[in-house]
Amino acid sequence: MKDFEKNILTPIRECIVRYAERNAFYIDGTYYTYRQLAERISAIRGVIRCAEKNEQIWGLALHDDLNTYASIFALWMEGKAYVPLHPSWPAGRIESIKTQVGCSNVLDACDAPYTEDLPDDWAEASGNDLAYILFTSGSTGVPKGVQISRKNVAAFMDSFWQTGINISSDDRCMQVFDLTFDVSVQSYLVALTRGACVYTVPYGQVKYLYAASLIQEQHITFGAMAPSMLTYLRPYFDEFDASSMKACILTAEACPVDLMEAWYGCAKNTEIYDFYGPTEATIYCTYYKLTRGGENLSLNGIISIGKPLSNVQAIIIREDGSLVDGQEKGELCVAGDQVTPGYWKNDEKNASSFFVREGVRYYHTGDLCYWHESGNIMYSGRIDQQAKIQGFRVELGEIEHHARTFYQNERRVMAIAFQNAQNLTEIALFVEAQPEETKSLIDYLRTKMPSYMIPSRILFEPSFPLNKSEKVDRNALKQLLNAEN
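Request: output the structure for the sequence above.
Response:
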């Protein structure tokens, strides 16, 4: 049996049959059963079959509704792939993506009549056929498409279950991510292949507040979140009860150890994991399980990203491509069945992002890491977030660590390198707070770092901008910095 069928389609169908009258989704206050999900899948498959153009890749307009999720499975069962298209995107961006892919078929709020048919078969497709394409921002201003094959998704699901996280039909799983972001795929697949219920966050809601209410009122037992979400919730930790959660994944950005230790206070029965992975490696490629009340590996206050998943190989290389020695820092590169076949029709990007070493094809993550003696990987920041100041190579993560410590880990900070009027590199430090005096911060930093690492500018922002992936939008902060200059 093909792995995509074995790991995804067959378990979904078995859950539809076994748990037909149980809840599959909770969306904006309404429950939907597995039978209702199945009926929508069958109806939408009929729409796909009747399309005038038999295209392999379809556009999928994203809504927080049952039809959108059913459309994903309908396309997969018809042997098709999808490209997420968000209604809030500018029309020009949507047209650019559709033109690049060459798709004219778009599923949008599909209103096909209900059918009582349940999915019982699916079209033939190979592991090399695509499951979806996610478009991310490109440096040229043109979005670039990351292709994810059926083999990639199947390998991810196999890897996920080998981490030790166990989900059953009794679980209530939270899905807080935009469907343009790949962690959403984990959030619904893990639940629906085990007969659990998926609880979503409606568009337009204040995400962290709605998620907090879901956790407490619906007694969520499992969910993946970005640390940014917990940062917003942190002022309420003393009155927040997350004891219903048995497992929690923190992902999408660097994970501060002090935030995790604080989270344990209200997630009293929870196993916490730090999962790491670029979109190009299909959702996650490494993970680290934290120890409650014990020592957790960290660097500059950031939790280790752990060890590779079972279907991932990892190496750390120098600039010349040779392997690092011991705990020497270098670029993390990953290979294996989870790694994308490449960017959509982008030969130049593919040539620079992938390389073959001893017959194995690797992806350049662009992340600066080193091997801990335990075999875990320590994350030190982005290679492109290093800066050379007065001839010295500076890691911005170290500056951020000392600034967070000064603020007793109660504020977010972000260090950014910029060119001054003399074309020399300086460091700006953004602090998520109302403006205040900075002398005490600078004095503290001078006790921790050499003078060339001290930020020349301190800027305050009441609320850091976030991107669609729930990460602090570094580019938006850079634009604010440029506007100040």
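DSSP finds 13 helices and 27 strands in the chain.
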